[in-house]
Specification:
Blueprint lengths: L1 H17 L13 E8 L5 E10 L4 E10 L16 E8 L2 E6 L2 H5 L9 E3 L2 E7 L11 E6 L6 E5 L1
Length: about 160
């Protein structure tokens, strides 16, 4: 009789551990990997790009935090940009720009959340990500007009 009770208690203990508080992220964590840092022009703040390397499982998570240099010992979650923002760069000491990929929102017939926000006292100017950069070019492989001339078939890379 004691064995089933012990198993149930163990199962409850494991399940309660799975529903613990949200993850906290510190620079000192064993699975923390700094990808890059970009200081503000006055060097009082920085944009820290990081990932969490969860080793053998092949799992990792990435993030970008906007920090004062004195915040490096604190939980980065409170200073992190939303996951949908990319390419954060300093504009001046109080403002950064960030890009949002609108393609997933268009595919889901949703309005992309292109709104400026504030993180750790820094204004974040949000703009759509441009998938067609200046260095890209289109190679036209085939071009053909429809018989009535109203449409054009175009195959490109």
């Amino acid at each position: 009789m004691k064995a089933p009770i012990a198993r149930c208690m163990l199962l409850l203990l494991i399940l309660s551990a799975c529903t613990a508080a949200p993850r906290r992220i510190y620079v000192s964590d064993n699975d923390f990997v700094e990808e890059s840092r970009q200081y503000s022009p006055d060097r009082a703040m920085l944009i820290l790009n990081y990932k969490l390397d969860i080793g053998a499982l092949g799992y990792s998570d990435v993030g970008t935090a906007v920090l004062r240099t004195s915040d490096l010992a604190k939980d980065l979650i409170q200073f992190s940009l939303p996951d949908n923002l990319q390419q954060a760069k300093w504009i001046d000491n109080e403002t950064i720009s960030a890009r949002i990929d609108v393609i997933p929102y268009i595919r889901n017939d949703e309005e992309p959340p292109i709104r400026d926000i504030e993180v750790n006292g820094v204004k974040v100017k949000v703009a759509p990500y441009d998938h067609i950069e200046n260095e890209f070019h289109v190679d036209t492989e085939h071009r053909e007009a429809s018989p009535d001339g109203k449409y054009e078939l175009l195959r490109f890379r």
